[in-house]
Amino acid sequence: MNKLSKTIVALMALFVIGFLAMEGCDKQNPQPKVSDFFISGCNDVVLYDMRDNDYPYIDTIYVTTIDNTKLKISTTNTQFPCDAYTIRPEIQAQEQNISIELLYEDSWADCICGRHLDIILENLKLGQTYFFSIKKDERDYFQFEVTFGPDTNLMFVREE
What we know:
The protein has one helix at about 5-30, and strands at about 35-40, 45-50, 60-65, 70-80, 90-95, 95-105, 110-120, 130-135, 140-145, 155-160. The protein is α+β, with helices and mostly antiparallel strands and about 160 residues long. The strands form two sheets. Strands 1, 2, 3, 4, 7 and 10 form a six-stranded antiparallel β-sheet that branches.
């Protein structure tokens, strides 16, 4: 083998090793992501005209561990326009800061109803403390901090 061939082989070997090392890092430190999402139809109990601003509502938020990498966030009465049919979560994660935005199309409805939702996040690390921010309409809806453990079981009450 001549000198040029040896140099090319050595460079290719370094490239392959570097690529494999980067792939290994990605698999060892995967980013948190939404693995499952559920949203109910309108709750029968909470339906009111948007012109009536005096109607207080309560949303209970549960945070529980599913397994060693998954966390479930459930709400009981998150308010959305009655005709918001395509609600979806969008997640942004930077280290231990996780932002979940609940997106839906602009609504023409003149009523709001409560909905139950479940968000299951995966790729979390046991013992790690995470700060969660849930947003609706680009506004903060609820924020909390949790140290993810095998027995995480929290309940928060949000009143408005």
